[in-house]
Write a sequence for this structure.
């Protein structure tokens, strides 16, 4: 070996026994962390939605399905939670939160559960009802029908008055929206077979209000049901969007219905009550 080689080469550093033990221990810690964290990262599902929006007029079953998706839980999980949860509901509701899942946008966090989300909705409903001075379950039931039947917010008060007037006259309500609820659908076309449906929600056959609300009414519908305007109307029909006609004269109502039917045949039109 030349003197030059002796100058360039460096002696190899040896790691002490203690150093080797510390290095091995550090590697063991890293391996342990990997074993714990990697499966969790791999099994982590999609990130939760930041909010869940409940539109006005949405039914409880639809809200349950939307909540399942937002919370990334199995289908039917929120419906089961609604059956088990001790929600703050009126006695008349008999544990059914229909009508008390207030339409609004709700935040969703990592610790949000179906039960906590439902409780939030019901608590929000109570807060809004209290703010508007509404304490009656009956009013919420009427508001849910108003929400489903009115073509626009400006018509809600008159629809509520029609419902009150029919109840006072002991007339059947004959609301298509309640039949739609019984049949789990939404349509403008109600047939003679439909009105023979055997259901407490069939207000063509059953006298009075349905046993529960039929959707989640919004603030406008609740206010309309709580304080409808004065009027003698007993009938209404939305001949076309933006054109709802209210009357106390049955013959006039029939003329309006004929016009409604003509609009339906031409491919437009709305609903009647």
């Amino acid at each position: 070996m030349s003197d030059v080689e002796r100058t360039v080469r460096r002696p190899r550093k040896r790691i002490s026994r203690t150093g080797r033990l510390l290095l091995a221990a550090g590697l063991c810690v890293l391996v342990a962390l990997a074993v714990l964290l990697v499966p969790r990262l791999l099994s982590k599902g999609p990130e939760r939605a930041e909010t869940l929006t409940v539109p006005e007029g949405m039914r409880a079953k639809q809200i349950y399905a939307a909540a399942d998706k937002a919370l990334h839980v199995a289908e039917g999980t929120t419906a089961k939670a609604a059956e088990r949860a001790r929600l703050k509901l009126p006695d008349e509701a008999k544990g059914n939160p229909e009508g008390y899942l207030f339409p609004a946008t709700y935040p969703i966090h990592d610790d949000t559960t179906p039960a906590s989300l439902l409780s939030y909705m019901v608590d929000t409903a109570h807060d809004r009802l209290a703010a508007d001075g509404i304490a009656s379950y009956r009013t919420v039931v009427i508001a849910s029908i108003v929400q489903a039947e009115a073509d626009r917010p400006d018509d809600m008060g008159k629809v509520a008055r029609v419902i009150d007037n029919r109840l006072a006259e002991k007339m059947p309500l004959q609301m298509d929206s309640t039949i739609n609820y019984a049949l789990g659908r939404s349509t403008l076309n109600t047939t003679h077979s439909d009105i023979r449906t055997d259901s407490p929600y069939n207000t063509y056959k059953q006298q009075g209000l349905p046993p529960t609300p039929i959707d989640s009414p919004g603030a406008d519908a609740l206010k309309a049901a709580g304080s409808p305007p004065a009027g003698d109307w007993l009938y209404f029909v939305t001949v076309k969007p933006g054109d709802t006609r209210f009357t106390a004269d049955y013959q006039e109502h029939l003329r309006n219905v004929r016009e409604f039917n003509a609009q339906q045949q031409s491919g437009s039109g709305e609903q009647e009550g």
Q: What stands out?
A: Residues 17-43 form the longest helix (27 residues). The two ends are 110 Å apart (CA to CA).
